[in-house]
């Protein structure tokens, strides 16, 4: 596999995984708020009857977010190296 293809893979896959996981959780939150008329507990990932404090996704999953973005930056670097070489 060439550097460019590997770089594109590393650039795109982490972002798609992060967005997929984020929207799965967002779907659960909307289900809780709109259908069950509850309040989402961000730390326990369950629907509660009483209001809960908001905790950002990056605070709850720092290794996933930072690691995914780091892999994407490494993929961007590999793409740039693959495209830079002379033919």
Description:
This is Transmembrane protein. It comes from Halomonas huangheensis. Keywords: Membrane, Transmembrane, Transmembrane helix. The protein is mainly alpha-helical and 87 residues long. The protein has one domain (3-84). It has helices spanning 3-35, 57-60, 62-84, and strands spanning 39-41, 46-48. The protein has a two-stranded antiparallel sheet. Helix 1 (3-35) packs antiparallel against helix 3.
| Unreliable stretches | none
Count of beta strands: 2
Major sheet size, sense and barrel closure: 2 strands, antiparallel
- Work out the count of structural domains: 1
Helix content: 55-70%
Which key features would you list for this structure?
mainly alpha; two-stranded antiparallel ribbon; 3 helices; 69% helix; elongated; transmembrane
Secondary-structure map:
Blueprint: H1 3-35, E1 39-41, E2 46-48, H2 57-60, H3 62-84
Antiparallel strand pairs: 1-2
